[in-house]
Design goal:
Ribonucleotide Reductase Protein R1, domain 1; Fumarase C, Chain A, domain 2; mainly alpha; Fumarase C, Chain B, domain 1; 3 domains; binds arginine
């Protein structure tokens, strides 16, 4: 087996930090130390950071205009080569930063070395990674918003899709039928979760919007650099306030990973419901062929793999958060090589969340809800028992007593395998003089849903308002 690391080229040249070393690096150390197999993903951010840095060095007079021009042109050439797939990533050059700097020296000669004036790799990695994570957070925020738009559209569609009326779903607590709800209300619950997920990602992006460039190795620099200039050039709101914190902190990545973890927890709950509701036993939901898979042995199978994988992949996204918390917690200020372990989990959480959001945005509009089945399921399980208790309480019976009376009726009905509306006039009256067969007959799921008019409740008017407000907010 070849590991990823072994596939990169290893024909060592003198290390960029090699001045004081008499012996060459042991091959295993080279392999262990190198981050280029994964941090090459930061090449665009690294080159942007270098271009901003070298332009600033020119502006403040540390470098001559022709030096700035040569270095910038060389960096642009390297960027083009990388984008064209014509760049040789070398393991002996350790990481993305030194690969690019060494390639610059190969191209323009020793003047390339002036690029590293008044900066450190600690600066570079901190700025590259912040740029990446900020962009990733904003991209996931947009994808989260796209899925929310789908949830709201589904909610709107199912307000009228059952022959002009709204689709009714059993609402559960403890996965036991509790009270009927509108399917649209269920969609809007996920829309609400996704709205907060988007907010968390945007908040994280706003808080990390500071440039660490110019913190140098840890203590700042005696060179007359302009950190406000590079921060603005890179699209950051301002430079970080403290150089130790600038190069030593990774809470921006932790916050991103935490927002990803909560988002995946929500998508995992959605997945659990999708898996359950698409079973033969529930029969609520038919998933599209395009987003399900078959079995190699059982011809009848149609498996909800997307939902199962989303539920399963939440594990790695939670793990990425735990992983980085653990990496960071024991590190003294400022930079330690431990921090090189900050990247793969972030890349993985970003990729995992992005594809999962995209898949749900594709799959939900193509899924079919079986309104007959969901309505029948909502009617079973004595889901309108609370309505009956409320009905008694509205006529002055203390709610606790009403609860007791209805509990007795549920007992009578369940022992004889009947629903509440099948109880006889005599049975109803025996339970309470205010009750009758007529009252029993009024206990429909539609009436139950219509009555829940409280703010945030499932009554069709309330859900229509919620859909209208969400659509306005999304415009
Ligand atoms: N590859 C390193 C990382 O990802 C870059 C920073 C190296 N800094 C250092 N002082 N060795 O963390």
């Amino acid at each position: 087996m070849t590991s990823q690391n072994e596939q990169a080229t290893t024909s060592p040249d003198k290390k960029l930090w090699g001045g004081r070393f008499a012996e060459s690096t042991a091959p295993l150390v080279e392999q262990y130390n190198a981050s280029v197999p994964f941090d090459q993903r930061l090449y665009a951010q690294d080159i942007r950071g270098s271009l901003a840095h070298v332009a600033m060095l020119g502006r403040v007079g540390i470098l001559q205009p022709d030096e700035v021009a040569q270095i910038s042109a060389g960096l642009h050439d390297i960027l083009a080569d990388i984008q064209a797939g014509q760049f040789e990533w070398r393991l002996d050059r350790e990481d993305v930063h030194m690969n690019i700097e060494a390639a610059l020296r190969d191209r323009i000669g020793p003047i390339a070395g002036k690029l590293h004036t008044a900066r450190s790799r600690n600066d570079q990695v901190a700025v590259d990674f912040r740029l990446f994570v900020k962009e990733a957070a904003l991209e996931l925020a947009d994808l989260t918003r796209d899925l929310r738009r789908v949830m709201v559209a589904e909610a709107e569609k199912h307000l009228t899709s059952d022959g002009g009326s709204a689709v009714i779903l059993p609402g559960y607590t403890h996965l036991q039928v509790a009270q009927p709800i509108l399917l649209s209300h269920w969609f809007m619950a996920y829309a609400a979760m996704l709205e907060r997920d988007e907010g968390r990602l945007r908040d994280a992006a706003a808080r990390m919007d500071e440039s660490p460039l110019g913190s140098s190795a840890l203590a700042g620099t005696p060179w007359p650099i302009d950190r406000f200039d590079t921060a603005a050039a890179l699209g950051f709101a301002r430079p970080t306030a403290n150089s130790l914190d600038g190069v030593g902190s990774r809470d921006f990545a932790l916050e991103f990973l935490a927002a990803c973890a909560v988002l995946m927890a929500h998508l995992s709950r959605l997945s659990e419901e999708t898996v359950l509701y698409s079973t033969f036993e529930f029969g609520f939901l038919t998933l599209p062929d395009s987003h399900t898979t078959g079995s190699s042995i059982m011809p009848q199978k149609k498996n909800p793999d997307v939902s199962e994988l989303a539920r399963g992949k939440s594990g790695r996204v939670f793990g990425n958060l735990m992983g980085l918390l653990t990496v960071v917690k024991g590190t003294p200020l400022a930079y330690n090589k431990d921090l090189q372990e900050d990247k793969e989990g972030v890349f993985d959480s970003f990729d995992t969340c992005a594809i999962t959001l995209r898949l749900y945005a594709e799959m939900l509009p193509k899924s079919v809800w079986n309104a007959h089945t969901t309505r029948a399921a909502a009617a079973r399980g004595y889901s309108t028992a609370t309505d009956l208790a409320d009905l008694l309480a509205r006529q002055g019976v203390p709610f606790r007593e009403a609860h007791e009376v209805v509990g007795g009726l549920v007992g009578v009905a369940s022992r004889s395998g009947r629903q509440l509306w099948e109880l006889t006039d005599a049975e109803m009256k025996a339970a309470h003089p205010l009750l009758s067969a007529e009252v029993a007959a009024s206990l429909t799921v539609e009436a139950s849903v219509k009555g829940r008019l409280s703010h945030g409740g499932t009554a069709p008017e309330r859900v229509q308002e919620a859909v209208a407000a969400a659509k306005a907010a999304l415009e």
